[in-house]
Amino acid sequence: MLLLANAGARPLRAAARAVSPCLWGGKHFSSGKEPVENSPATPMLQHLVYKIKSTGPITVAEYMKEVLTNPVKGYYVHRDMLGEKGDFITSPEISQIFGELLGIWFISEWMATGKSATFQLVELGPGRGTLAGDILRVFSQLGSVLKKCDISIHLVEVSQKLSEIQALTLTEEKVPLERDAESPVYMKGVTKSGIPVSWYRDLQDVPKEHSFYVAHEFFDVLPVHKFQKTPQGWREVLIDIDPQVSDKLRFVLAPCATPAEAFIQHDETRDHVEVCPEAGVIIQELSQRIALTGGAALIADYGHDGTKTDTFRGFCGHKLHDVLIAPGTADLTADVDFSYLRRMAQGTVASLGPIKQQTFLKNMGIDVRLKVLLDKSTEPSLRQQLLQGYDMLMNPKKMGERFNFFALLPHQRLHARSHEINANHSKPSPSPVAGFSELTWQ
Ligand code: SAH
């Protein structure tokens, strides 16, 4: 497991907002930073300028999608942006304890829901594969509990580069990988501990079997539409070419209503909102699968409960980056609106959270795990890394309060079933869901 030497000192993707809230000037928005006339005209910028010249201003969602996941030039497609030499760092990369506790969460839910004979672990946006690797180590250590269970790993990843790194992390390529770029399952392998692992570009292609889903810092990279309230009603923020400076982009407002306005709540009181239809589609897909086959989804990200306004920002080299400058060289992200995710799941499955990362990890026993690892390690530098990693994950000023955990569960997981009702006809309390309350082994 990767433990970074200076984990405590590294800037986070969730560090702060990149741009001051957009001010509606009647005509166009500032991108929040001084213009950089000599900023590089990246291939992505040239592609976008050409696109806008041919079809007109594009939505922020279209911009994010092109910049991040365009199959030829997208930011995520050909680079490893994680870690010290990259643009940002995430919890699984900071401390092995993070993934281990998530591994325990999945086993605890698997046990609480009747120890199914099959167990598909599905990860959305697996980065370097570090989180999946740490979860699998826990599965190996608790092999006696899972021994009769048929486990498989399913990774949903659009990045060619990152999928190669994930394969190296998880399989060490001891068994040669099978590749088929044309197939929905574009790569297959076997993990170090002998578990089959498959790669997909789309969740839709993952077999609809009993599954446990995990998405860490995945929903925040999905494209958002931005809207500003004006005297004429909601107007979408678009991206156009600056007529004053060649090869420079700027924000403008759509002159009339646009279709994504349908995603804004009728009673919305904020004057600037971000909506993420793609997140809604994925939550509905997860919810339908969980309602159909059982299992659970655990989603962790930075976000809010329908309260924040302008959170769209960029990160490059661990620093905030103007979202419109040198597109394709920086990560783009927006806070996750958990109230929207909850609405999208409602009726199909139950949801829990969002709760703060600090509370979730505390409930999962992070203090006990830290103590065990500290007791085992004699090397002062390793102890220092463990303590710094703990501080980064738990400190409210670092990741402890910025990151949230949110879960989707079948309704029957939270409500006692009829055959469990005891002789007094009073409902037994359902077994608590770990993390959202203290972990107890049933
Ligand atoms: N979960 C990892 C990585 C977070 S970065 C961690 O916490 O360390 C976001 C990840 O989502 C990357 O692996 C990126 O390639 C992937 N990704 C981005 N957009 C995606 C999409 N539309 N579908 C699938 N994966 C996507």
UniProtKB/TrEMBL annotation:
<keyword id="KW-0830">Ubiquinone</keyword>
<dbReference type="GO" id="GO:0032259">
    <property type="term" value="P:methylation"/>
</dbReference>
<dbReference type="InterPro" id="IPR038375">
    <property type="entry name" value="NDUFAF7_sf"/>
</dbReference>
<keyword id="KW-0489">Methyltransferase</keyword>
<comment type="function">
    <text>Arginine methyltransferase involved in the assembly or stability of mitochondrial NADH:ubiquinone oxidoreductase complex (complex I). Acts by mediating symmetric dimethylation of 'Arg-118' of NDUFS2 after it assembles into the complex I, stabilizing the early intermediate complex.</text>
</comment>
<dbReference type="GO" id="GO:0035243">
    <property type="term" value="F:protein-arginine omega-N symmetric methyltransferase activity"/>
</dbReference>
<dbReference type="GO" id="GO:0032981">
    <property type="term" value="P:mitochondrial respiratory chain complex I assembly"/>
</dbReference>
<comment type="similarity">
    <text>Belongs to the NDUFAF7 family.</text>
</comment>
<keyword id="KW-0809">Transit peptide</keyword>
<feature type="region of interest" description="Disordered">
    <location>
        <begin position="421"/>
        <end position="442"/>
    </location>
</feature>
<keyword id="KW-0808">Transferase</keyword>
<dbReference type="InterPro" id="IPR029063">
    <property type="entry name" value="SAM-dependent_MTases_sf"/>
</dbReference>
<keyword id="KW-0496">Mitochondrion</keyword>
<protein>
    <recommendedName>
        <fullName>Protein arginine methyltransferase NDUFAF7</fullName>
        <ecNumber>2.1.1.320</ecNumber>
    </recommendedName>
</protein>
<comment type="subunit">
    <text>Interacts with NDUFS2.</text>
</comment>
<dbReference type="InterPro" id="IPR003788">
    <property type="entry name" value="NDUFAF7"/>
</dbReference>
<dbReference type="GO" id="GO:0005739">
    <property type="term" value="C:mitochondrion"/>
</dbReference>
<dbReference type="Pfam" id="PF02636">
    <property type="entry name" value="Methyltransf_28"/>
</dbReference>
